Inverse folding.
């Protein structure tokens, strides 16, 4: 079944946006490259792509007519989304297997990228419980579990509010680490495992996705993007440490 | 008694996994699998550390390997990439207490620069905690990505709906 080819320009524009969006929401580099090439291939074009941390350079090539289309596209900084990661990846396979037309593909893509995220309130509760059980895993008693639960909610709420206002990432991390650990430091008043409470209160901030993606990228040979991700993660971890240090400076005498 | 300890450990790890996953906006259908993997990985590490007496770094590596293999196996069922299941499941294994001690020791080192005895103590504390934290995090990442390189064909087509020939 040989259908008429979709125009190079339109496919190119779409593919560039698709790749940038995938990269923006925390997909590791080799998956972005594979999925993008797969979509290009299913429209009969060869995609040559080079991914950097902040931008993607890509060329679409029609091997029959030797026409090509090149674009350098900025990667938007989007919040990490596992759902979009799997849906967009599945979309590339669907395009490949079922030969979707460009219009259908665009429509499905719009639907995926405009789907709502999980309710922030729900996330708040879940993360509170998560950090509380983390505290229990480290051997904290029930009193510190309760304190960690409430301080996590306070810290994460602050993070959500600040992120909504578009404040700098690093400032958000320092502020919410400080607030969460400060709330957790109330545990020094009680006779409880206050060190564990302090230690676990900031752990919801750990940037796990860039850490793991960074290692995957490096091992797969995308060393530049891998190190860029690890650097980003390391900076965020430093910010958590700074926020925690402020609290420790204030309460260290009660801890010793 | 040991069995209940293991189950309790797994349960708390599952709750932690779900919560840490929720920050990164996963689809609702992946929650049960994240919980299962987090529990399996953490309980595995717990068993190795308390029953067999293996050190935290090696035990974490094995736990991460279990999570990696599990995510490649379960990922196919819900057509989701490995990392979507493995990263949240891995987070409960992050060595938070060591990381905390690292920051604490650094701070106390700087505060006690004039006192040689305390300075040496906090220096030692800082280095040993940094060593554990960095090694464990690195091994966690390696352990969970290893299955991806062992079974590349399967790992790269987890989101494909069409049956492969």
């Amino acid at each position: 079944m040989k259908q008429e080819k979709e125009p190079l320009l339109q496919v190119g524009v779409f593919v560039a946006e698709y790749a940038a969006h995938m990269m923006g929401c925390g997909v590791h580099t080799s998956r972005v490259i594979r999925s993008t090439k797969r979509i290009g291939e299913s429209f009969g074009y060869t995609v040559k792509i080079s991914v950097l941390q902040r931008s993607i350079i890509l060329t679409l090539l029609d091997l029959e007519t030797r026409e090509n289309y090149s674009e350098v596209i900025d990667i938007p900084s989007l919040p990490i989304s596992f759902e979009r990661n799997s849906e967009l990846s599945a979309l590339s396979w669907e395009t490949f297997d079922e030969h979707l037309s460009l219009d259908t593909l665009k429509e499905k893509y719009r639907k995926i990228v405009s789907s709502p995220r999980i309710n922030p309130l729900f996330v708040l509760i879940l993360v509170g419980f998560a950090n509380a059980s983390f505290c229990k895993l480290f051997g904290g008693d029930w009193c510190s579990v309760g304190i960690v639960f409430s301080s996590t909610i306070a810290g994460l709420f602050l993070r959500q509010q600040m992120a909504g206002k578009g404040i700098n990432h690093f400032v958000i991390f320092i502020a919410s680490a400080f607030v969460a650990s400060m709330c957790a430091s109330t545990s020094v008043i009680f006779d409880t495992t206050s060190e564990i409470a302090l230690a676990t209160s900031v752990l919801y901030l750990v940037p796990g996705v860039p850490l793991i993606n960074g290692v995957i990228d490096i091992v797969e040979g995308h060393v530049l993007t891998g190190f860029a991700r690890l650097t980003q993660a390391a900076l965020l971890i430093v910010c958590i440490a700074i926020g925690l240090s402020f609290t420790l400076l204030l309460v260290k005498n009660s801890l010793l | 008694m040991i069995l209940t300890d293991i189950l309790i450990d797994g349960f708390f790890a599952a709750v932690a996994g779900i919560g840490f996953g929720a920050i990164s906006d996963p689809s609702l259908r992946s929650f049960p699998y994240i919980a299962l993997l987090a529990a399996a990985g953490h309980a595995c590490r717990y068993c190795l550390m308390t029953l067999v007496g293996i050190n935290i770094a090696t035990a974490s590596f094995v736990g991460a390997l279990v999570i990696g293999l599990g995510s490649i196996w379960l990922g196919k069922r819900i057509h989701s990439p490995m990392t979507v299941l493995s990263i949240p499941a891995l987070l409960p294994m992050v060595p938070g207490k060591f990381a905390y001690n690292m920051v604490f020791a650094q701070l106390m080192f700087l505060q006690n620069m004039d006192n040689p005895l305390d300075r040496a103590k906090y220096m030692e504390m800082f280095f040993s905690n940094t060593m554990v934290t960095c090694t464990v995090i690195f091994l966690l990442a390696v352990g969970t990505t290893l299955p991806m390189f062992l079974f590349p064909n399967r790992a790269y087509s987890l989101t494909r709906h069409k049956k492969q020939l």
The CA atoms of residues 2 and 44 of chain A lie 10 Å apart. Strands of chain A lie at 46-51, 55-61, 68-74.
